Amino acid sequence: MRSPDIGTAALRLFTYAAMAFLFFPIIITLIVSVNPREFILPPSGFTLDWFKAAWTSETFVRAMGVSLILGIVASLVANTLALLAVLAMVRYDFKGKALINLLIMSPLLIPTTIFSLALYVYFVQLGFGGGIPALVIGHAIHVLPFAARILTASMQNFDTSLEEAARNVGAGPVRTMLSITLPVMKTGLISSFVLCFVLSWNDFPISVFLAPPGWTPLPVELFTYIKFQYDAVGAALASSLILISGIAMVVIDRMAGLRRVLRG
Amino acid sequence: MKARNAALLLAPAALALTIFVILPLMWVVRTSFNHTVDGAYMVSAFTFENYTRFLGSGWYLVNTLWFSIRVAILTTAISVLLGYPVALYIAGTRGVQRNVLMTMVLSPLLIGLVTLVYGWIVIFRGGGLLNSLMIALRVYDEPVRYMWDLKGVVILLVYIGMPYIVLSLLDSIERINPSFVEAARNVGASRWRAFWSITFPLTMPGLYAGLVIVFTLNFSAFAVPLMVGATDTQMIGLVIYREALLNNDLPFASSLSVIMIAANATILLGMSFLFGKLILNRLEAKR
């Protein structure tokens, strides 16, 4: 083997500098959120006061609740629709498969700005613009392609003889689904659910167009907050969002591999 | 029986996507021809006034459309310059190092935009980290305005775009058969030469895929200019947002969306033509 030369060393240095660029704002936010002296660096100690302030604020607790419910419902809806569609796509051959695939991936192909505006214009004219259904539908449709992608991969690895065995001993299609198909696909389903949840949990563009008053998800609330106020409570709130995303990343990476899931 | 099963399984998703993606998009096109009365409410009409209002205005063309194109080209180019070496390096790593690097590259994709923006504001604002450091080091005396300025918009768009470039490039680089590069080296090509004549041309498809994603993302961006932009960073996505939500002018916002999609498609078509030529020329030259 060749020993590492100057070229490789330069490449490594460049990569580490780029990583610092990518990670710096995340680290800084985490540090500011536990630093007792507001924004004064280096940190002089450790405090959870900012987190306490963020998590006892009525507005933020409400926004967290909204984001939580929204994420769970949108993810459930998206995964149910995606699971059924993927079953058909992987198991059956039919005409127009490519077209259906394009339709399923379409939310990913349209810029989010256009997608949000289109749904907003549509719902306003249907008479329930800025309502809770609009918000949930927007989030569910937005994450659906991601669910379809993970579940397709998971379904393709599926050994269909397991299902045949179940059918042979007399289980009906629903019973086979519940006791064989879903348990075998567990890892795929969990990582798909978590990914959809975290995408919804962090979404800003769709929520800003579709969220009704009084139903503001956390990222929009954080945006409004830092527009008018600039203090470490904002950092604690941002850190809360980061921590949830971090947990989700670990789960997805363990179960499905982050990279395979996020490919653009 | 089989066909019916497939249709039943597909129906919910296909229906939902048709009703909530395809129809709304068609609706936007229809709405773009409607008329707004006194900038307040919309009446059904068939007029081109929303298009002429934008395309007939030198101000909009220069400060919104052309401005967005320039910002998108600049930020995509910087993302590529930063992302290419990173992808090249990561492709050569293994094990724990690779996992750590991949996680760092992917984390901005899974952490929300507002959260990331918050971190950048801490670093870049008037009395923030960077300004304090630069003033302490006497690089300059007065705080420089990074945020709420074009600089902030560019920095953030590069920041968000870079991970996509790295991902698409990695896909391409990993598909290259290492024996090609090995062979070039064996016949005496320098590393640099082997890179330019083997690796680089073979990464063009990945680079192109990344460019398409990042250009479209940055050209249509509204959240970034909304959060860290200024009055002179009127990107087209931001104008759409403002016209729809603040001015309640849905026809105008809709026509802007149609113009944006058309402009984006035209530019991407031009880019694919350019890329096709580049790759073909390189292959021709090899013969």
From TrEMBL, chain A:
Pfam families on file: BPD_transp_1 (PF00528)
Location(s) in or outside the cell: Cell inner membrane; Cell membrane
Membrane-traversing stretches: 12-34, 68-90, 102-122, 128-148, 189-212, 232-252
One BP annotation, GO: transmembrane transport
Coiled-coil segments on the chain, per record: none
Ranges of residues in domain ABC transmembrane type-1: 64-254
Keywords from the UniProt entry: Cell inner membrane, Cell membrane, Membrane, Transmembrane, Transmembrane helix, Transport
GO cellular component, one term: plasma membrane
InterPro entries xrefs: MetI-like, MetI-like_sf
Protein name: ABC transmembrane type-1 domain-containing protein
From TrEMBL, chain B:
PROSITE patterns xref list: ABC_TM1
Membrane topology label: Multi-pass membrane protein
GO cellular component: plasma membrane
Main location: membrane
Gene3D superfamilies: MetI-like (1.10.3720.10)
ABC transmembrane type-1 domain: residues covered: 65-269
SUPFAM superfamilies recorded: MetI-like (SSF161098)
Entries under CDD domains matching the protein: TM_PBP2
Source taxon at top rank: Bacteria
GO biological process assignments: transmembrane transport
Compartmental location: Cell membrane
Transmembrane segments: 7-29, 65-88, 100-123, 153-173, 194-217, 256-280
Keywords linked to the UniProt accession: Cell membrane, Membrane, Transmembrane, Transmembrane helix, Transport
PANTHER family: INNER MEMBRANE ABC TRANSPORTER PERMEASE PROTEIN YDCU-RELATED (PTHR42929:SF1), INNER MEMBRANE ABC TRANSPORTER PERMEASE PROTEIN YDCU-RELATED-RELATED (PTHR42929)
UniProt family annotation: Belongs to the binding-protein-dependent transport system permease family. CysTW subfamily.
The name this protein goes by in its record: Spermidine/putrescine transport system permease protein PotB
